Each structure stands twice: as structure tokens, then as C-alpha cells.
From TrEMBL:
GO cellular component: gamma-secretase complex
Pfam families per UniProt: Aph-1
Oligomer and partners: Component of the gamma-secretase complex.
Role summary: Potential subunit of the gamma-secretase complex, an endoprotease complex that catalyzes the intramembrane cleavage of integral proteins such as Notch receptors.
InterPro entries associated with the record: Aph-1
Residue stretches spanning the membrane: 7-27, 39-58, 89-107, 127-151, 158-178, 184-202
One of the protein's GO biological processes: Notch signaling pathway
Record family assignment: Belongs to the APH-1 family.
Name of the protein in its database record: Gamma-secretase subunit APH-1
Localisation: Membrane
Domain of life: Eukaryota
Keywords: Membrane, Notch signaling pathway, Transmembrane, Transmembrane helix
Membrane topology qualifier: Multi-pass membrane protein
Amino acid sequence: PLIWVVFLPRAFFWLVSLLLASLVWFVSVRLSDRGDARLQHGLLVFGAAVSVLLQELFRFAYFKLLKKADEGLATISEDGRSPISLRQMAYVSGLSFGIISGVFSVINILADSIGPGTVGIHGDSPYYFITSAFLTMALVLLHTFWGVIFFDACEKRRYGCLGLVVASHLLTSGLTFLNPRYEVSLGPIFIITLCTGLWAFVTAGGSFRSLLKCLSCKQEDDSRVMTYSALRVPCED
């Protein structure tokens, strides 16, 4: 239940950031010259940048909210510790952010795939749907990795890491404007995904040794000795 408590509000936060970014882009288009194609393209790039910045701003706001909630859970718990760790919250938060982002990225594409028409009939790329699926997969993974890195950087006040997360998010969004030259955009995005995944793995406490232990599926023997008290509850009459 605690996982869902973290998951669902995070998706709502992303929807709010998308709504605000859409309003900014809509007002900019209304106030500009619609006949100027170059200006409209620039406004589209501007809207994407505003969307990224708002998403990261809401990610930070959600981190502060979870920190307050974590302190409250630790206060009411029996052992004085929160039942969910910061790393778990970061992972679930990033995953929910990525899933809702992926759903909104691919839902219109899936609707167009129903028809009518055939992809590529006018000379467009016939690989539109498969590349869109791979791009959506990369974005879901990236948001999950960014969530882990972002929360850890906020907790340890590593502002350089925060800047790198925002910069990589902006770069990934900017690369999508190179489409339909998918070989130019999709390759660098997957390189960013791989590098960010390794970064998140190390940030979460992973190592080469722990990775080998996981792949080998070996469990460590529990060598701890359990000590029981000699005191017994008196028998009832």
C-alpha cells in the first residue's frame, strides 16, 4: 500500500507539469505569428524545454513532500524508522513518472496505428512505430534512473548531479527534434540511457560484486546466532 501511495501522486504531479507546460506553449502560439513557420518551430522547442524544467521542478517538490511524509511515518512507527526507504521512494517515484510519461507519449501513436492509411506510403519512414516504441521504452527507463539519481542528489546536496540530471533530460528531449532521422536521434538517446542506468546503479549502492552475486543467484548463509531469553512467561492457572 505504501508503494501505491508514492506511485499514484507522482503520476498526478507529472500531469500537472504537463498541463502547465501546455498552457505556456498554447499562450505563446496564440500571441505569435502563426504564419511564421520558423517561429512556430522555435516555440515548439521552447515548449519542450519549459516542459522539462517544470517536470524537474515538480520532481523536486515531490521529493520535499516525501521527506515530510517520511518524517511523519518515522514518528508514528514503533521502532522510530520509516517503513519505506528513500531509495525505494526514489525508484517508485521515477518509475511512476516514466510510466505516465510513456503512456502519454505513445497513446496518440497507438491511436493512429489503427488506421486508416499505411505508414510510409508518402515516403515517410516505415519504421515509425517500432522506433517510437523503443523511444518510449528509453524514456521510461530514463525517468526511473533520473528519479534515483535526483533523490540521492537532493538528499546529499550534490548540486552538480542535479544539474547533470536536468541537462541530460533537456538533451534527450532536444534529440527527439531530429526525427524522422531516427538513426541520429535514437542511438544517442540509448547511449544516454545506458550511461544513466549505470550511474543510477552505482548511486543505489550497486557494485560489480553485487551484480555477479545477483546473476549467480547464490544466497549467503545466515551465520548470525539467535539468542533467546531464558525468561519465560508464567503459565496461567
